[in-house]
Amino acid sequence: MRRVLSIAAAVVAPCVAIAELGGHVAVARGVPTEAEWDRLGETLSVNRDPGDLLVVAPRWAEPHARRRVDMPIAQLGRADVSRFAHATEIGLHGARSEELAAFTERSAVAIGPFVVRTLDNPAPDLVVFDFLEAFGPSTRVSGTVPAVRCTWSDREPVLAGGLGGHPTFPSSRFDCLGGPFMTAALTVIADERFLPRRCIWAHPFERGDKVLAFDQVPVGRARRVVGHHGMYWMIERDRTGADIEIEARIDGITIGKAVHHDGDGWSGFTFDLPRAPPDARATVELAVRTSDYQHRHYCFEATLR
Asked: Which residues belong to CATH 2.60.120 in the chain?
């Protein structure tokens, strides 16, 4: 029996090695060359509208495209694709993006191993006001219990958590009592698929609400608040933390609440706006709270549409 097993091993091992070598050769031949990536970048720089969403399929090839083509952080860390009226898709070896499945094709051109498609969104959900873009010195960030006011600074030290740590806190942010985790800032978290999501870091306080207030918001031109929220996936994947609630208020009147449960990942919420004259503006407050603030690395984005 041992002799049979030894002969089988002597035959199988070389076959496996040959198969692995063949697979390696096939993969290596399928990898685009630097010249092909450069040609792609040159073509897109001339023919692409900078305002169009740029998506790379498969997603792992995206960093190669970023070396040649400008891809703004607002697009890389997008909440979803519904707001974009048009998109450019780079497909490597026939790959397609699931995100853009509902978009219709206007044109397609082959560039080496790539197919570049120009796509249209048949029903774009256009943004009237983006709270991420409005976030800054004019925003008011405060706590209710105790009553505290966070202060804006653009000279804070950049803090990065490293592998497995907290998201990066930029130099421009609100300093709140309780240390750096209590800050309010624009950052990027990794969701349940470890995709980047650009959002406002709003770790809740131990007690009461953390309130972010935006003045002169054009509520009369919109019908809904559309947002997403979540936490860095390594924090919520064990599903042991307390729920987090976000409440939206228009001039002090609550229009909706949404709860994020551990394990929800990057999830959406929608609140209807009360009817108002087209030129109406108001103060919009987004209040965040939880029953246990430990490890509640909460982050959200919101828009008016």
From this structure: 129-304
